[in-house]
């Protein structure tokens, strides 16, 4: 049974239900027990479970990650939350050199490593160069990490639940601008299957692949493309690693055209990975060159018009798709994904 | 020189030191002459009293975390000698299945949870295990071993602060052997800026002790661990000691013509051999005779020889399984 929740409410519900079922789960990170409660996503957990199980931490991202690893090694299920995923750069030693390699390098003597890390991408309202990057592609590079980038409220909940049940290190990248998006969410604590991509909209003319916020932009673009009779298929990557190659390539083979849109830079990123996949596995079916869309190739600027130009959006996806399908922009109206985001941060 | 521990206990510790010493020496010999162990090894020869003294004061279900110079800690905590040797030879029977090598030893059965070649990396992990112990309300403790160079990494300060603020049962054990690879402490620390003062500034109590006397280490750690088990928060022990061999590899530095420290300095420290200190004490008390010591030596050498033989005869990991065990 489902009903409508926001992405943020879904995150909260997933966490609460996971914690109810498993006493070994605890939550830490800067501000997790503040009254602002990570934009409200931990309010309910704080109310229900108190400071024994959900507690603040000093600003010490690297050691905190190691501490969570050490607790996980002793049978706990720690969840670390970073208000901005950029802070996770300070934890890369622990995340990448230790957690990601743990099971492999300790072989048969490795204890399970159920570490979960949530990192939120700031977007809009001039978050600037150090608060709006998305680390899903960077983290996805490393074998041993599972990297999730939920695009819908249902997955925000389902992936939280799945991550808190798994016995391996998992990073969940959430986009702040998704927090107010509404959608159907199961009442039951159903985990989203990890490692699966999802076709969010079916179509036969062109495939648009993305994750996180870009899925929402792509759905708006797909709607607009109907004006020219173009049926776009939207594939939500959902799990960056391990990547569901089959679902993605099946769609590319079906439509023969691919736009990859990422909430990251194109260079050495997830979009490049998907493009390579198309080249390696779907070349015969491709009717047009692959098109990549990502951040402008510069650090994120703050000033509103610059910031507006920095991000790919529904209209840029629509325009790229029209070009690939050999259609003009004439007579088109371009919708914008409604941005309800307000300051101060 | 400190007093004799209970002679049975001191004999146990000396035998354990001897076992580690001989294992390391024999492994070093094979490493050098065969070129078959393809994993950088950091020998702890000369530093055995720290590992044995600390682990001697722990219970089996207490956990330890170590770093690149981890053979001593692994063996002292009860790690499997055959598993260690096989790991160095890269065999499937190695304690880490041939995936970790010399610097990623683990043995969950005896509480060697993780070792890592990144400086300071396992320090917070020990703190986290202590956090779990505190949450569970038990009496277990966690120990993190690290070298003096870790005081140059930020993560140690984050970890000390967190452990202190939260009163966690973790022992920070610094093995200060005066060098970080070939850089002496004098070039890395302003004179007068003692580690112990930094540690105390976080509210963590500690002491600096003779790390070449297993009795001193054993006693200091027993006291510290008793405090940890009473829930009085973390502690720090700095063991002054010296490594005899090169930083990484089986040679003496003079064999490689390195000049960062003198042979005189080494020989000075070799006169303070932790094994000799303990042996002399036992012999003076007539608790140990030459014959018994020689018998230990023979047993240990045979054990190490058969571990090496077994490792060489053991199967390699199957290449077709290279992708197994990532997730
Ligand atoms: C983060 C990091 N930086 C540099 C190194 C290279 N390195 C390996 S061992 C070592 C010196 C370690 O000295 P110390 O901590 O005193 O331990 P010791 O080797 O003396 O036992 C260095 C610099 C490393 N392993 N990790």
Description of the structure:
- Chain A folds into 2 domains: 2-186, 3-Layer(aba) Sandwich (Rossmann fold), CATH 3.40.50.970; 198-325, Rossmann fold (3-Layer(aba) Sandwich), CATH 3.40.50.920.
- Chain A has helices at 7-21, 43-53, 61-73, 92-99, 102-106, 136-140, 153-163, 213-225, 245-255, 270-281, 304-310, 314-324; strands at residues 2-6, 25-28, 54-55, 77-82, 116-121, 146-148, 170-175, 182-186, 198-201, 206-210, 232-236, 239-241, 258-261, 291-293.
- In chain A, helix 2 (43-53) links the parallel strand 2 and strand 3 (54-55).
- Chain A is built from 12 helices and 14 strands.
- In chain A, strands 3-2-4-5-7-6-12 form a 7-stranded mixed beta sheet, sandwiched between helices.
- Helices cover 35% and strands 18% of the residues of chain A.
- In chain A, helix 1 runs parallel beside helix 7 (153-163) and helix 9 crosses helix 10.
- Chain A starts with a strand and ends in a 21-residue tail after the last helix.
- Chain A has 345 residues and is of the alpha/beta class.
- With 327 residues, chain B is an alpha/beta fold.
- Chain B has one domain: 3-Layer(aba) Sandwich (Rossmann fold), CATH 3.40.50.
- Helix content of chain B is 44%, strand content 11%.
- Chain B is built from 11 helices and 8 strands.
- Chain B has helices at residues 7-34, 48-55, 71-76, 81-88, 123-136, 154-166, 195-201, 214-229, 263-270, 274-284, 290-313, and strands at 63-66, 112-115, 142-147, 170-176, 179-180, 183-184, 206-210, 235-240.
- Chain B has a 6-stranded parallel beta sheet with strand order 2-1-3-4-8-7, with helices on both faces. In chain B, strands 5-6 form a two-stranded antiparallel ribbon.
- In chain B, helix 2 packs parallel to helix 8, helix 4 crosses helix 11 and helix 5 (123-136) packs parallel to helix 6 (154-166).
- The longest helix of chain B has 28 residues, at 7-34.
- Chain B is globular, with a radius of gyration of 19 Å.
- In chain B, 53% of the residues are buried.
- The site of thiamine diphosphate has 15 residues of chain B, from strand 5.
- Thiamine diphosphate (TPP) is lined by residues 42, 68-69, 117-119, 147-150, 177, 179-181, 247 of chain B.
- Chain B: It catalyses: N(6)-[(R)-lipoyl]-L-lysyl-[protein] + pyruvate + H(+) = N(6)-[(R)-S(8)-acetyldihydrolipoyl]-L-lysyl-[protein] + CO2.
- Chain B: InterPro entries: DH_E1, PDH_E1_Alpha_Subunit, THDP-binding.
- Chain B: This is Thiamine pyrophosphate-dependent dehydrogenase E1 component subunit alpha.
- Chain B: Residues 16-319 form the Dehydrogenase E1 component domain.
- Chain B: Pfam families: E1_dh.
- Chain A: Its cofactor is thiamine diphosphate.
